[in-house]
């Protein structure tokens, strides 16, 4: 990667900065690694995968040269398995559970999974089929990983499925929210295509609640599944948020994935507020866009930060600076209405709050100013309260009430899965892999309800 | 989805993957688990007069960190009463009517002994019989197993006795502990066998513990030779299968055994003339679940090759396996090193320089970078460099087909004619 300091960035460098960072395993590398796997029975790696991918089986198939079978094993359990191989926090999941951690080095399960799914992407193979038609219709609101997984499973069970997706393309945050240098858009779109190939009707540019009403869905379909995820980053609630140069982290990342990369950030000083994985993504995107100084400020300390250790490491290597115990209080602009300075206050840790973490409290008279050109807020995501209410469903501050066995909301005919229900909490970030698993389970619950 | 089912001398199974007679097929519980996992057939652990087994029975060779490259055992035939085994065979067959259950048998080389066990086993309902003339330890000292399997007359006679009463197909399982396996295979044919299976295990001593000076394995400080199997024996088994398959007078179907660990091994055995394959060590190493990739991999392979049936593979390579004297002496291959792929380990260079024909040059290019080049004219095409090369595609063996083929046998007969000619002239 080229950063602003090293040399002047060209448009070509910018583009290159957003290429996938990790190379695919070379064939020999993959075979060597596959042969190192012990092929454990009732393998802990498999049990640690939220979608339950049969890891030893897919690795064994790779070792025997059966890459098709290997890819099928993965995608059977996880319809977004190609995305997950790139974005899953594997050291917290499968690789963290690998028995070889204790005696040697864990198997590079994520990389092997990427190798196998790359094979599937490079070879035009049909791995799954739609089921015998059941003459039942299911509407899915939101085409992210949860919606896509549910759609694929429902199709395999023979149901007619229509996905209503607000954006121009399906895939949800996989397509729009996860940085290109970890997840190229083409991977997510390939997964969308696999679902479409099974006969799922995906209606893009169609926002439920605006272009089509919840009532219509309830009337025209036997069941409705809500998988709308979460919304934009909420406002900080401080003065100066409307100045130019203040961004929403998710929107900022989306721009790098959908618009031509702009040179406007080259040489700029940026501050990202928050210390979850979204903050890290926004910060590394800024560096790759040419910003010369990028700081992440967080009101608590490294201990409480929700970003994964490997993400934290990645950001530090990219040159992101971290400032702990720092709370923004006011954004100040210049005469043109552009961000100029950020006023912050120093914090210290007080008594533990309800999450068990020590609550940060301001240190008296500790306000200070930082010069800055760009401010990015990355303090979580808002909830789709309007839509939930338009469906007339019970919720708790935007978190849908759900029966976690039947995946039913307060209305029997309406089901839900993914971030819209489980989303991020104070304790950790939401994951694609969990959304995919919940989508699968919701699909089985819907199938069960519709078949009786 | 290709048709994976096979028919071995009238014994049908949903796929070619059978468990060989060995610990994996010791009981009904195990065989039923195996069928549930997908195995197409099972040859029950050898039945006979129950024996007493020793404690400490197996050992294995580890090669460069890979466990179970080869496997060795000093176990005997079943140590469970015949009645118990028969009852479990009956129950298993009832639950899995479409899977093949073959009873492996071993008794003293006496006609009435064979008649008795064949009748008892067939009465319970099996799909076929396999005569174990192969076990190389313990049983051999009692005149059974490989002791009778090494003597063609005994193989023929015992097969004949079995055939006198057997109503189901009879497979004769051959021992590899013999100079020419086609001799005993032919004897089986003469005795009326419907099929042969091979190989059983190879005489072996796994190792010696250099600290205690005990054998590996040992039983209270003493050891004995055992039977060797697993991946290490595959080439030996494949050759024996091929020799039988190409033998003009051995025209009965073959069940291939020995070191088969995955679908690719199975395809090789089938191409070399096996109708199905039997597996022991790989299942013992990883459990019954390995059959899932065997089935899936074979199916994908057949689809890729555009073949509708697994049985279309059988024997396709047999006609290509010939005597040395029938190989073309004018055909030439020469190594070519691909500098883009080469990682400069120099392993090919040193192997050729020290132990082959000194035809790889170490050169420096215009940029001062070192590279390797084969002097193709000097290369004899031995393959050694490409064998030791760790990188796929870094060394290609380039073919130079001969304009006129000439085998050793043709050359000899030409020379013969010339000599005869000379004689007539002089
Ligand atoms: C910046 C960022 C980085 C992340 N990085 C990772 C990571 O590295 N690894 C990881 O595992 N997870 C990561 N996540 C989390 C992960 O992306 C989510 O958990 C996951 O995408 C949730 O899936 P979902 O299907 O529930 O929702 P989403 O992916 O949000 O999809 C919801 C879909 O619904 C559509 N929609 C919304 N409202 C409507 C409506 N009214 N009508 C029709 N359609 C509608 C949306 O357009 C969207 O397509 C990240 C999240 C963010 C924000
Ligand atoms: C522990 C053990 C016990 C065996 N017992 C028998 C037996 O009872 N009867 C028999 O015919 N073969 C027996 N065999 C030989 C196997 O059936 C098979 O022929 C041999 O192991 C080669 O196959 P493999 O390389 O797949 O293991 C035994 C093998 C092992 C490892
Ligand atoms: S490591 Fe433990 S679980 Fe694995 S084989 Fe050895 S003893 Fe059994
Ligand atoms: S735990 Fe590790 S070694 Fe065992 S099957 Fe999983 S990846 Fe392979
Ligand atoms: S496998 Fe281990 S535990 Fe089982 S019988 Fe053999 S020695 Fe005992």
TrEMBL record, chain A:
<dbReference type="InterPro" id="IPR028261">
    <property type="entry name" value="DPD_II"/>
</dbReference>
<dbReference type="InterPro" id="IPR009051">
    <property type="entry name" value="Helical_ferredxn"/>
</dbReference>
<dbReference type="Pfam" id="PF14691">
    <property type="entry name" value="Fer4_20"/>
</dbReference>
<dbReference type="InterPro" id="IPR036188">
    <property type="entry name" value="FAD/NAD-bd_sf"/>
</dbReference>
<dbReference type="InterPro" id="IPR023753">
    <property type="entry name" value="FAD/NAD-binding_dom"/>
</dbReference>
<dbReference type="Pfam" id="PF07992">
    <property type="entry name" value="Pyr_redox_2"/>
</dbReference>
<dbReference type="InterPro" id="IPR017896">
    <property type="entry name" value="4Fe4S_Fe-S-bd"/>
</dbReference>
<protein>
    <submittedName>
        <fullName>NAD(P)-dependent oxidoreductase</fullName>
    </submittedName>
</protein>
<feature type="domain" description="4Fe-4S ferredoxin-type">
    <location>
        <begin position="27"/>
        <end position="61"/>
    </location>
</feature>
UniProtKB/TrEMBL annotation, chain B:
<keyword id="KW-0560">Oxidoreductase</keyword>
<keyword id="KW-0411">Iron-sulfur</keyword>
<dbReference type="InterPro" id="IPR013785">
    <property type="entry name" value="Aldolase_TIM"/>
</dbReference>
<feature type="domain" description="4Fe-4S ferredoxin-type">
    <location>
        <begin position="370"/>
        <end position="400"/>
    </location>
</feature>
<comment type="similarity">
    <text>Belongs to the dihydropyrimidine dehydrogenase family.</text>
</comment>
<keyword id="KW-0408">Iron</keyword>
<dbReference type="InterPro" id="IPR005720">
    <property type="entry name" value="Dihydroorotate_DH_cat"/>
</dbReference>
<keyword id="KW-0479">Metal-binding</keyword>
<dbReference type="InterPro" id="IPR017900">
    <property type="entry name" value="4Fe4S_Fe_S_CS"/>
</dbReference>
<dbReference type="GO" id="GO:0004159">
    <property type="term" value="F:dihydropyrimidine dehydrogenase (NAD+) activity"/>
</dbReference>
<feature type="domain" description="4Fe-4S ferredoxin-type">
    <location>
        <begin position="333"/>
        <end position="362"/>
    </location>
</feature>
<comment type="subunit">
    <text>Heterotetramer of 2 PreA and 2 PreT subunits.</text>
</comment>
<comment type="function">
    <text>Involved in pyrimidine base degradation. Catalyzes physiologically the reduction of uracil to 5,6-dihydrouracil (DHU) by using NADH as a specific cosubstrate. It also catalyzes the reverse reaction and the reduction of thymine to 5,6-dihydrothymine (DHT).</text>
</comment>
<protein>
    <recommendedName>
        <fullName>dihydrouracil dehydrogenase (NAD(+))</fullName>
        <ecNumber>1.3.1.1</ecNumber>
    </recommendedName>
</protein>
<dbReference type="Pfam" id="PF01180">
    <property type="entry name" value="DHO_dh"/>
</dbReference>
<dbReference type="Pfam" id="PF14697">
    <property type="entry name" value="Fer4_21"/>
</dbReference>
<dbReference type="InterPro" id="IPR017896">
    <property type="entry name" value="4Fe4S_Fe-S-bd"/>
</dbReference>
